Amino acid sequence: MTLTEHRAEKVPARMVRRLTTPDPASRSRGGQRFLLVGLVLASAYSLFPVWWLIVAATKNRTGLYQSNGLWFSGWHLWDNLHQLFTYEDGIFLRWTANSLLYAGVGSLGGTLIALATGYGLARFEFPGRNLVFACVVGSFLIPLALLTLPLYLLFSAIGMVDTPWAMLIPCLINPFSVYLAKVYTEATIPFELLEAARLDGAGELRIFFSIVLRMMTTGGATVFLLAFVNTWNAFFLPLTVLRGEENWTLNLGLYNWSGKRLESGVDLTSLVLTGALLSIVPMAIMMVAMRRYWRTGVTLGALK
Amino acid sequence: MIRSLRWKGAAFTVPFQLGFVFLYLVPIGYAVYQSLYREQQSGLGLGGSTEKFSGWANYQQGLTDPAFLSSILRVVLFACVQIPVMLFISLVLALLLDALTSRVASRFRILLLVPYMIPGVVAAIVWINLYSPDVGPLTPMGEVLGFHWNFFSPSMVWTSIGNLLTWHGIGYNMVIIYSALQAVPRDLFEAARLDGASEIRIARSIKVPYVRGALVLTGLLSIIQMLQIFNEPALFRNVTPQTVNDSFTPIMIIYNQAFNAGNYHYAAALSVLLALILGIASFLFYRLTSREAD
Fold first, then answer.
1. pLDDT confidence bin for B80, thresholds 50/70/90
2. CA A28, A33, A34: angle at the middle one, nearest 5?
3. In chain A, whose CA is at the least distance from the CA of B280?
4. ipTM of the assembly?
5. In chain B, which residues have their Cβ closer than 8 Å to the Cβ of A143?
6. N or C: which terminus of chain B carries fewer CB neighbours within 10 A?
7. Torsion angle, CA of A111/A116/A121/A122, rounded to 10 degrees?
8. Which residues are CB-neighbours of A27 under 8 A, at least 6 positions away?
């Protein structure tokens, strides 16, 4: 119990420190300029591939192969998008919908389960609590392949391979989300509040759904965001459990097109690049819209 | 705590526990079980096959399999070069950001984090096209400078993958190191400045020792990821199947054993071995780096 209380103080303390950090003001003009040059170069390195991708998505075949890659040459973005959305009866849209379904629904369910588990672990004492937490932390070290291959065999034994369930069910159980949910509960839900609610006669389920979940909006949003990004980026699991292309994710589809390009006579380069650019868009929207949550998540993720 | 309350609290964790058993414990147990068996063809392979207990045979085969061992060696050597380079760049960028006013720093931080927002598969596709002699700008750029780069040649392919991973990873690692830097007490710097220490000296003697913990952590996470590297080589294999063969990394071997060779038993043994190697490597790294701190 003392451990959890100690932890509860730790998170706000860190945030306060960050807010009150004094400006490490510039010592000399020359030094400052040197810093800026270094950072500008690093930013250019970070951004130029994205810039190239944006430019490439606006070019037609000739432009792509013959013009300077870092500058525009004609405007064919709409043609490329049209080709992308109509290729093989709009299979790209199907993959987008699948990715949104797996990442959206899977992360929503996973976040709810993680919040309940984190709350149970942080605010109750029961036999086996430490064991559950040990499982959560221990699972961080398990390689994906060790889980995915037997999971494939189990799923195929019960006929779930190649159905959306094979992607959705694994997303429901995310130990890292549970870990985050526990840390957030410790930081935001005071024991006294729970005691007061119980004295007022509120049932445990009611306390969880109408008090705890509401107070955990920030923590829950972070957990959801990180789970969403994880699922959207997943590759090994979908590659293993999804066979038919109507269930594929965007990543799988792009991987397949990227390989086909050289195997058969069809030139899919333009499709792959336009599709790659589009697949970043939901991620970028998500990250920018939820920037506030994401920053704390990235740094907390480091604690894992 | 009241007895009934205990069980109600435990009930909140039940969905997770059930899922954990079904999605973690059962698969691991199944993999271990499978790794101890072998498939045996009966009657000229016509009567189907039966499973036969084989003890450690699959593990022995794995530990003497030159393809598996060399894939591990390949990945470890690569990790020894790529991870220090990436962490060094991340550290330098975090130190640069830390020396700026926080308003300017937050602008740059967002720009530097852009690669992290891009899914790994898409990042690999983008770089493969940048490297491509047909559509990428890098090959003509090299020609202008007098280099004849072939990013997919056997001698270059690890450099190409390493650059991709570094590009993708520096933003994330920089943020972790940067937030550790923010926690260093500022009065330490003032004291050092009064004593006449230069900014570079302060960075080297105060800031870097303070973020050791963050460096160890980012290093550990990178090692865990690197031993399991699959996506990037799989995408490169699309382009250069001769250079990046199907036993390029441990996970690629496991995947091929399971799905192309249909040898689940051997694949299971290899994935258990990989898990053990991962555990040992993490433990050694942790011990090594924490002993240095004493």
1. very high
2. 100
3. A141
4. 0.87
5. 227-228, 251, 271, 274-275, 278
6. C
7. 90
8. B199
Amino acid at B235: L
- Cβ contacts (< 8 Å) between A119 and chain B: which residues? 12
* Closest approach of A89 to chain B, Cα-based (Å): 23
Q: Which two tokens stand for residue A166?
A: 């094979």
Are A47 and B111 spatial neighbours (Cβ–Cβ below 8 Å)? Answer: yes
pTM for this structure?
0.86
Cα separation, A235 vs A233, in Å, equals 6
Is B200's Cβ below 8 Å from some Cβ in A? no
Is a pLDDT exceeding 90 seen at residue B274? yes
Name the residue facing A298 among B22, B26, B175 (closest C-beta). Answer: B175
The encoded tokens of residue A10 equal 């730790």
Identify the CA nearest to B125 among candidates A282, A52, A67.
Answer: A52
At B8-62, the pLDDT tens digits run 888 999 999 999 999 999 999 999 999 999 887 665 555 567 788 888 999 999 9
Q: Average pLDDT of each block of 10 consecutive residues along chain A (304 residues)?
A: 38 42 52 85 94 88 76 81 85 93 95 95 91 90 86 91 93 92 89 90 90 89 88 92 91 89 66 92 82 62 45
Domains of chain B, residue spans: 64-293
Superfamily of the domain at B64-293: MetI-like (1.10.3720.10)
Question: B167, A45: Cβ pair inside 8 Å?
Answer: yes
Scan residues 201-240 of B and list those with Cβ closer than 8 Å to A. Answer: 214, 217-218, 221, 224, 227-228, 230-231, 234-235, 238-239
What is the tens place of the pLDDT at every residue in A60-99? 777 777 777 777 777 888 888 888 888 888 899 999 999 9
For chain B, first and last CA: distance in Å?
Answer: 41
